[in-house]
Amino acid sequence: MTPKKKISKLIKKPLTQKKGIMKDMEPKPQEKLVALPKGNLKEVRLVRGMKDIMPEDEKYWRHIYRTAESLADTAYFERIETPIMEYTPIFSRAVGENTDIVEKEMFSFTDRGGDDVTLRPEGTAGVVRAYVEHGMINRPQPVKLWYFGPFFRYDRPQSGRQRQFYQFGCEVIGDSHPVIDAQMIAMASEFFKRLGLPVTLQVNSIGDKESRVAYGRALMDFLKPHRHKIDKELLEHYKKTPLRLLDVKDEELQLILDNAPQIVDYLTPQANQHFVKVLEHLDELDVSYQLNSKIVRGLDYYSHTTFEVMPDGADKKLHALGGGGRYDKLVELFGGREDIGACGFALGIERIITLMKEMNLPVPERKPPEVFLAQLGDKARQKAIKILHELQRAGFHVAETFSKEALKSQMEIANRLHVTFTLIIGQKEMIDDTVLIRDMENGIQEVVDSRKIVAELRKRIGGTNGEHH
């Protein structure tokens, strides 16, 4: 299997697998290999770094997804789904071959056909690949896309950071105007407002290539007197990409960099004008933000605007809830036109849920059933199944326990579920082709023709709220 010609520019040179990738794919010293039993699977446990999403947490996922979907819909973004597995160069070249993601964190392997493939560690590269491969340049520009799904990084598992994690992301491709940057930052801000989470938006510009080269030299010059305090391998590793030193999680290094020159002082006139316009638009949109010269995002494809979303009052030890920025050269890397600008963001769902729990934020509960359907006897059960489907098609939320025989146990469950009405079908109801409706609040019971049960419930439940049509 070979990739399509449209992305040939990206993968034309052979992939060279770095030792660091496979080394970090091996179990860490503290991790033990799980020996799978040959017989039953009673000793098998969850894969390290993965997490089950249990029913009691589903309300958070449902609420966040619906908030993301509503936000994207109102901004007229279209949903895109890219595969969770892509050719490895899609990420190694786009994200950067000497980034931590590519060197240490990607789940990469050679498939049975001999192709180098990777479980996606982030969303932007795959979306841009799809934009180019499917000729989306021929659509009205810019193209606005959003996604919500799982991603994979071989990282040390900890609170809010799993090896399989979910992100909500938005990308605007096909426009370089600074108002797009401001709109994306404002959109991320609005998402957290709708969730009720107080956050701080930290904004920076890393400028164009000329700006970054000039600043890189200034940064390395600044660090010369401090070289004896900094790990030599670290300096050598980031010699070609010195801006990434600003993103390294090393407290001593960051203390030194607190006094480093700021990149905004090295922006070219064009890059500076772009950033000023972004900030002006943010002010017009009444979006609160902080300038932070250390926000560089650590991926090769970023240029100009970068930003991160931090929980309010967060210290340096807390992780960002998400971030994004502009990436004007990525479309060209995939074989598209060189003048196609783009901007986007991605937000980490697990970290958001953790914060929502810590703050005890209210989350809409799943709508309880309105009706419980009880039956007594085999023939009544058959009729109840038919009525159940009729009610579900009409839009009612119906609960039942058809596997239980005793009416008493069924009514106990109906009480625990706090349903409004219970429908009872027994031997007499079978003979008369009726259904007994019991109001669970006052205990009043009424016999209704079974053919009119949907209309009767609409009158009693849906007549005022208009939910059932």
What this model shows, in words?
It is a single chain. This protein has 469 residues and is an alpha+beta fold. It folds into 2 domains: 5-208 and 268-358, BirA Bifunctional Protein, domain 2; 371-462, Rossmann fold (3-Layer(aba) Sandwich), CATH 3.40.50. The chain is built from 17 helices and 16 strands. An 8-stranded mixed β-sheet has the order 1-5-6-11-10-9-7-8, sandwiched between helices. A hairpin with a 5-residue loop joins strand 15 (434-439) and strand 16 (445-449). It is elongated and about 95 Å long.
Set down the secondary structure blueprint:
Layout: H1 8-11, H2 19-25, H3 58-74, E1 78-79, E2 85-87, H4 88-95, H5 100-105, E3 107-110, E4 116-119, H6 124-133, E5 143-152, E6 164-173, H7 178-195, E7 199-205, H8 209-223, H9 232-237, H10 251-257, H11 269-284, E8 290-291, E9 303-311, E10 322-326, H12 330-333, E11 342-348, H13 349-358, E12 371-375, H14 378-393, E13 398-400, H15 407-417, E14 421-425, H16 427-432, E15 434-439, E16 445-449, H17 453-465
Parallel strand pairs: 1-5, 7-8, 12-13, 12-14
Antiparallel strand pairs: 2-4, 3-4, 5-6, 6-11, 7-9, 9-10, 10-11, 14-15, 15-16
Helix pairs in contact: 3-7, 7-11
